[in-house]
Amino acid sequence: MKVMLRTNAAGKLLVYVAKKDLEEEVISQTQQEDTQIFTLSNGWELAIAGLSDPIQTPQTVEARKLN
C-alpha cells in the first residue's frame, strides 16, 4: 500500500494512509536488513524497504502491513 511519511511541528514522524484516511504517529522503529519496521500509535506495524537514513520527508513510499 502507498503511504506518505512526514514530520509534524513537534518533529515526530507521521504515516498517512490515504486509502484508510488514517494518519498515525510512529512510536517505534526497528531495522531488519534493508527494511525499516514502523510501529504506529494504533498498533499497526508497517515494513518499508529502501529508506535512506535520515528519512527524508515528505515522501510517498510502498509499505507492507505486518499485522
TrEMBL record:
Source superkingdom: Bacteria
SUPFAM superfamilies listed in its UniProt record: NifT/FixU-like (SSF159203)
Gene Ontology biological-process entries: nitrogen fixation
InterPro entries: NifT, NifT/FixU_barrel-like_dom_sf
Organism: Thermoleptolyngbya sichuanensis A183
The protein, known as: Putative nitrogen fixation protein NifT
Gene3D superfamilies referenced in this protein's UniProt entry, alphabetically: NifT/FixU-like (2.40.50.240)
